[in-house]
Amino acid sequence: MAGMNWDDLQIFLAVARHGQLVKAGQSMGMDATTIGRKLQRLERSIGQTLFEHRRTGHVPTAAGTAMLAHAEAMERAAAAIHATEATDSSLSGVLRVSVSEGFGTWFIAPRLAALTRDHPDLTIELVANSGFLNPSKKEADVAILLARPRRGPLTVRKLTEYHLGLYATPPFIAANGPITSVRRLPALPLISYIPDFIYAPELKYLDEIAADLHPRLRSSSINAQAQLAASGAGIAVLPCFIGDADVRLARLLPAVDIRRSFWLAAHQDSIGTPRVRAFIDWLVAATQAERALLSGHGCRVVLSASRPGEATD
């Protein structure tokens, strides 16, 4: 069985056990077409037909029956390796974490030192950027996502809610007069995402605040947006864990309170490994300890002075 891809063997096992491409795909978080293509690739690589296509489904051939015994033996060996890792109290190896740019930079990175000091043999790869690696394909050991994944062999849990608000510098607010109504926002320079580069619907914030808000400054990077706001260029919608952590910024219009959630996902094969379990436990504890920051209740400054007779929303 040299040269065969273990992922393809898992496809083979799923088809052998479920008897149909659709059901095998559902168990693997894939569509039937992908399952069929991977199965054909496996058959070409070994030069044998593994299944007969009958009206009732896929039935293993003699070669498929022989392959099944070998594949199940490999599966048992892999499970034994995972069980050994799960009982090993030492944390070592590489842990790859996929996370959004803002949360990875402003929340996780400043707190990772405590975890790495406790586990000096653990190497952490923090992939913090726009878009996410796919834990279903084992591109990352842990993914912190903006929405709950609906498919794939994953263990998923809600990590935390977080809030977003409007932020600008005190000098910007002073220069533009009291900003106490969302009706003033269209006349002010707003900072937001480039529409063509919004990689998740959860990042569309402005429509939740008011209609016809058109940002003059746009960036695909939430960190760049935060820096633009901190430079005095305008008003940005920022997560409170960014806006409240930057001493150059103040929150305005506190009634504008946008809520989102982070979700934790890990592949079912790796969720029980000590390093994955330890990281998840650490991150859950960190978010619970920082609820005030994540919710915006720890905001230092809210500028809300109004002009006489000016309405507020």
Topology:
Layout: H1 6-18, H2 21-28, H3 32-46, E1 51-54, E2 57-60, H4 62-87, E3 93-99, H5 101-108, H6 112-118, E4 122-128, E5 142-145, E6 154-168, H7 170-175, E7 190-192, H8 206-209, E8 217-218, H9 222-230, E9 235-239, H10 240-243, E10 250-252, E11 258-267, H11 274-289, H12 291-295, E12 302-303
Parallel strand pairs: 3-4, 3-5, 7-8, 7-9, 10-12
Antiparallel strand pairs: 1-2, 5-11, 6-9, 6-10, 6-11
Helix pairs in contact: 1-2, 1-3, 1-4, 2-3
Q: What number of structural domains do the residues give?
A: 2
Per CATH, the architecture of the largest domain is 3-Layer(aba) Sandwich
Give the beta-strand count: 12
Strand content: 15-25%
Question: Overall pLDDT, averaged?
Answer: 85
The name CATH uses for the topology of the largest domain is D-Maltodextrin-Binding Protein, domain 2
Structural class: alpha/beta
